[in-house]
Amino acid sequence: MAINTERRKLLEQIMPETMIVTRNWLANKAFLDKHAIDNLVKSEQLKLLWPGLYTRGKSQLSWQSMVYTLQAVMKTDFVVGGLSALELKGYSHYIPISKKETVHLYGNDKLPGWANKLTEKVAFKRHTRNKLFSGMEKEISEKYTTTVTWKLELDELRISYPERACLEMLNEVPGKISIENAGQLIQGMTTLSPRTLQNLLEACTNVKVKRLFLWFASRHNYIWFSKLNMDKIDLGSGNRVIVKGGKLDKTYQITVPKDFQY
Question: Alpha helix (H) ranges present in the chain?
Fold first, then answer.
């Protein structure tokens, strides 16, 4: 009885409600073997969510708790990025058409099978860094991340810098995000860091994204835009079609809407 009481207290201390952990985490942090974990599940002190995956308490799962598990418990390289990161930083108020909330994760690790199985309310979309930053290592990638607090009981979530998230978002144009919505988002980005943008634009290997970003930036003529060194940014050669049937912007060699308002 005393051992069970001690285990319960230990779990309450190191494992807040709604936190999702793995069997390995329980073995390393709480020194619980398979038999002890199975007994905690039987006594309903732990809830089995998926083979080898557990939570505590009766609160509903959130996508934040799942991302926390990917980042802090499983130590994957995923960060919340693109439109999802911009929403967390208050740049976007995009209303999805689908009832499912899409959370954009950026990293080269494999997304576990349970990520899109535990709840029907969330869909995780995995993006590799290679789409924008071919060859960028995890250590370099982490330099362009920040953290947000989502719940007092748990630590913070890693998300992309707004500058990086903006480039990630633009890679979804026009297939998943309209150029009009992208324009509305960038319209509010008045305080981006020119130094961070310079580094990211030099590291970015996606010509379309770089040209589209600079085209948007030039329209607003933000202070940070005037501080960019264009000579160090490789914009490739040849035209890129962003919108079919549009007009060619000769400066950035992209085809954009004829009567764009943003």
Answer: 2-14, 23-29, 34-42, 63-68, 82-88, 138-141, 162-170, 179-187, 194-203, 207-220, 223-226
